[in-house]
Specification:
The protein is α/β, with parallel strands linked by helices. It has seven helices and seven strands. A seven-stranded mixed β-sheet has the order 1-3-2-4-7-5-6, with helices on both faces. The radius of gyration is 18 Å and the shape is globular. The two termini are 29 Å apart.
């Protein structure tokens, strides 16, 4: 299934890979109110859908929105409740970047009515697609929902220091069976690269909303530090330095590790 902004590839493995933040499409009437096209797209999960483009070969189902998270973030609680109380984060319809830069020209921020319209137009259909795929695969047994993300390695406003390469989130053991988290951790550990479970990123709304291990729906989030597959510039970013191009040579080892991680997720579901 594919529309101009939502693409679903149906596979037969008990695994769904979701891409909520790889989109860069912004309706022209919204972009005209923003400070700049570059700022509006700055915080995308750059190249992550390309990084995981082997997922279909593993039989995984994929769900991707092409809409920018600056329009609406489909991985935020639609009620507006913060996923990380007391910590800096962005909202359902962000008005600033991760670095605190305003996205909209003064007085042009979305109203409550506009936020509701964006939710009905983009958020609800995206999650209807995810829900439908969970239902389709769950009819045959347990299923794993893997929410795929990336972020710059250093974002001082969001976290201290340099982020580990693999950041696994199961909301403190709530959204999936511990056996799944252990399997993903083990696949990360053999890489020799840094990893953490439930560090700065414990899982967004997608993971927390769908994860019902008692009902056979196991949800887990993977937030990659993007230095694993592209150049992560040092210092202040500008249009010349960010985003840096996808680096196939740098990415290939990461892709092999991610292949092992997704395989571990599917194997877990088949045995659960």
């Amino acid at each position: 299934m594919s529309t101009d902004w939502l693409t679903v590839h149906e596979g037969d493995a008990p695994l769904i890979v979701a891409f909520p933040h790889t989109g860069t499409d912004i309706p022209a009437d919204i972009e005209a109110r923003m400070v700049s096209p570059w700022l509006a797209r700055k915080d995308a999960d750059w190249w992550v859908d390309r990084l995981y483009d082997f997922a279909a070969d593993l039989g995984a189902t994929t769900v991707r929105t092409a809409i920018s998270r600056s329009v609406i973030d489909v991985n935020r609680d639609p009620s507006g409740v913060s996923l990380y109380p007391g910590m800096t984060t962005t909202g359902l319809c962000p008005v600033e970047t991760f670095d605190g830069e305003p996205l909209y020209q003064p007085g042009q921020e979305p109203t409550e009515a506009e936020i509701a319209e964006r939710r009905a137009t983009f958020f609800d259909p995206y999650h209807a697609a995810v829900t439908a795929q969970i239902g389709r695969l769950r009819a045959s047994g347990p299923v794993v929902l893997y929410d795929a993300h990336s972020i710059r390695s250093v974002v001082p406003r969001l976290f201290e220091g340099e982020l580990p390469l693999f950041n696994i989130g199961d909301n403190g053991g709530v959204t999936c069976a511990p056996e799944l988290s252990r399997a993903v951790e083990a696949a990360c550990a053999v890489t020799g690269w840094t990893h953490v479970l439930n560090g700065r990123f414990k899982g967004g709304w997608t993971t927390r909303h769908y994860g019902q291990p008692g009902a056979g729906i196991h949800a887990i989030q993977m937030e990659l530090a993007d230095r694993g597959y592209m150049l992560d510039p040092e210092g202040a970013l500008d249009e010349a330095s960010w985003p840096s191009p996808y680096d196939p040579d740098r990415a290939e080892p990461m892709r092999e590790h991610l292949r092992a991680i997704l395989t571990a997720c599917a194997d877990f579901a088949r045995k659960a």
